[in-house]
Amino acid sequence: xxxxxxxxxxxxxxxxxxxxxxxxxxxxxxxxxxxxxxxxxxxxxxxxxxxxxxxxxxxxxxxxxxxxxxxxxxxxxxxxxxxxxxxxxxxxxxxxxxxxxxxxxxxxxxxxxxxxxxxxxxxxxxxxxxxxxxxxxxxxxxxxxxxxxxxxxxxxxxxxxxxxxxxxxxxxxxxxxx
Length: 178
Description:
- The chain contains 4 helices and 5 strands, in the order βαααββαββ.
- It has a 3-stranded antiparallel beta sheet. The chain has a two-stranded antiparallel sheet with strand order 2-3.
- The longest helix is centred in the middle third of the chain and has 34 residues, at about 95-125.
- By secondary structure, the chain is α+β, with helices and mostly antiparallel strands.
- The protein has helices spanning about 10-45, 55-60, 75-80, 95-125; strands at about 5-10, 80, 85-90, 135-140, 145-150.
């Protein structure tokens, strides 16, 4: 689901499948970012860079999702420069690349968490009695908050009807002679 785009779905089931597709895509993306970070750290493990030690500590510490460490603004100001909407890392090397990878990984994981909450909320609505055949219009904002309005089903329910054509051959009277 794209942020900042108005989307219409014919029913709740298609909406949920779009959410599940996005969740799976984000999961694959976060795994790819994790693999990239791991490869970069392993290839440069032989070199003793003191500036990578805090990044390695960040990986080694057990991550508690409820407890997030605040990023030091002083370190960000010293190493990143704002050039009119583009932030440029001050230096050439692995550290800037790894910081970007970590930022992308954190973004993918937070987006995955928020989309999972949206999916759970929609599942809760369906379990409370919202009909699955209702259409919906949705808007996913930049802050990953979903606005959703239900619409009439795209195809009205038809009652069961059976139509068929039944043909019989016409009987030809035949004479019986005695």
